[in-house]
């Protein structure tokens, strides 16, 4: 008697296979990985510095590199200094001294800054403000937002609305106050012993984040680009402190670790509860919707991938000239000098700034290209509104 099973009558195993286990658990694993990655990224970002506010070499949202590149693109020599001695050595002659952070200076050094024989632009209320700009002091804190100039200062009226606030200011006799908040100006400009001194209650309008908004770029250029050279005083970089032999886990606060563990448990339980209720994913063919700007964005990505800043700059400049030439009443065959002269006369911008923007060398990096695009957009808006 044979005990061999007949063909086709063998038993079938019901144990889950590796593929079945993977399909059932990959969603939970993905959620867990996302939670852990989010926690790690959050800790890393919170532990990193927020940049150096209004530093001409800083590319963070609070930095001032975009403005520095824009000024250089328009022929202004920008010199970054980190001490009063350097500012004194570079601050004489036909130039502007920009102060964006004086918190690292002593009282004696602040007094020396106020005596440098150059136009002075103080961005934000600084320590020892009375020594640097006698007669100007903070009145009270106000919210920074887009404001209208409401004054006769040409630099402000040509720029239009700008992101000002921070602190309202008291002004000396004969000063011009702009961008008022609660009845007091947030920008003050006056002349003292042949120097033009300008103080703003806040400097966010000059930052990389805000420069392209409203008339911020125009106002920043009108204030900082009036002279052939700009000396920009910024806080010196400090060396990072050593962290010893601590690992990443040691740097995470205890409360954050417990929160991540609890969140992971909740997500896991939720996934187990809902996972068995969901059926297989049903694929459905949907119509493809292509946005109108898809080709423009695609070309921009190609330019960026190939680092073709020169070609991108040519495209920006050519399209700008084609759009504004009819509004200026010029024939299409008009020469570069005629176009530059007409744009400068219509917008009130300096002729050498306009010429450098339209026919100058290509930007050296992406920040310069962004700054060029922002300046051309501002020029076109002023031509349309004039």
Biggest beta-sheet profile: 7 strands, mixed
H/I helix tally? 14
Proportion of residues in extended strands? 15-25%
What series of H and E elements makes up the topology?
A: HHEHEHEHEHEEEEHEHHHHHHH
Structural class by secondary-structure content: alpha/beta
Unreliable residue runs? 1-13, 45-49, 239-244
Domain count: 3
Mean pLDDT: 81
Shape descriptor reads: globular
Query: What's the end-to-end separation, in Å?
Result: 108 Å
Helix content: 40-55%
Strand order of the largest sheet: 1-9-2-3-8-7-6
User: Could you tell me the number of beta strands?
Assistant: 9
What does this structure look like?
This protein has 386 residues and is of the alpha/beta class. The chain has three domains: 35-51 and 259-276; 65-233, no CATH class; 294-385, no CATH class. It contains 14 helices and nine strands. The protein has helices at residues 18-47, 65-73, 84-90, 107-114, 129-132, 154-159, 216-224, 248-251, 254-275, 294-305, 309-328, 336-347, 351-359, 366-385, and strands at residues 77-81, 95-99, 119-123, 137-147, 162-170, 176-181, 184-192, 195-200, 229-233. Strands 1-9-2-3-8-7-6 form a seven-stranded mixed β-sheet, with helices on both faces. The chain has a two-stranded antiparallel sheet with strand order 4-5. Helix 1 (18-47) runs antiparallel to helix 9 (254-275). The longest helix has 30 residues, at 18-47. The protein is globular, with a radius of gyration of 30 Å. The protein starts with 17 loop residues before the first helix and ends with a helix. 33% of the residues are buried. The model is unreliable at 1-13, 45-49 and 239-244 (pLDDT under 50).
């Amino acid at each position: 008697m044979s005990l061999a099973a007949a063909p086709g009558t063998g038993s079938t195993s019901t144990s889950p296979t590796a593929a079945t286990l993977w399909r059932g658990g990959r969603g939970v694993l993905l959620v867990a990985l996302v939670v852990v990655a989010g926690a790690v990224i959050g800790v890393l970002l919170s532990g990193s510095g927020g940049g150096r506010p209004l530093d001409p070499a800083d590319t963070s949202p609070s930095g001032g590199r975009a403005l520095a590149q824009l000024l250089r693109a328009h022929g202004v020599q920008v010199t970054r200094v980190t001490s009063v001695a350097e500012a004194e050595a570079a601050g004489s002659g036909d130039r502007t001294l920009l102060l964006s952070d004086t918190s690292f200076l002593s009282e004696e050094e602040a007094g020396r800054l106020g005596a440098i024989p150059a136009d002075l632009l103080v961005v934000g209320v600084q320590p020892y403000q009375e020594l640097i700009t006698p007669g100007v002091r903070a009145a009270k804190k106000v919210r920074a937002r887009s404001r209208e100039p409401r004054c006769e200062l040409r630099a402000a009226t040509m720029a239009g609305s700008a992101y000002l606030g921070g602190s309202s200011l008291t002004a000396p006799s004969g000063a011009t106050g702009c961008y008022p908040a609660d009845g007091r100006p947030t920008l003050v400009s006056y002349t003292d012993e042949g120097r033009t001194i300008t103080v703003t209650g806040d400097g966010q309008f000059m930052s990389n984040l805000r420069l392209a908004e409203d008339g911020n770029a125009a106002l920043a250029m009108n204030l900082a680009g009036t002279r052939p050279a700009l000396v920009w005083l910024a806080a010196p970089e400090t060396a990072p402190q050593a962290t010893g032999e601590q690992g990443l886990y040691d740097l995470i606060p205890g409360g954050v670790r417990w929160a991540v563990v609890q969140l992971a448990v909740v997500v896991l339980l939720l996934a187990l509860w809902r996972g068995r209720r969901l059926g297989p994913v049903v694929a459905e063919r949907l119509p493809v919707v292509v946005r109108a700007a898809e080709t423009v964005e695609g070309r921009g990505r190609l330019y960026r991938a190939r680092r073709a800043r020169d070609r991108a700059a040519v495209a920006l400049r050519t399209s700008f000239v084609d759009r504004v030439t009819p509004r200026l009443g010029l024939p299409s065959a008009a020469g570069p000098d005629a176009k530059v002269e007409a744009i400068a006369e219509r917008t009130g911008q300096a002729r050498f700034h306009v010429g450098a923007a339209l026919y100058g060398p290509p930007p050296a990096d992406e920040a310069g290209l962004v700054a060029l695009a922002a300046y051309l957009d501002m020029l076109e808006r002023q031509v349309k509104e004039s």
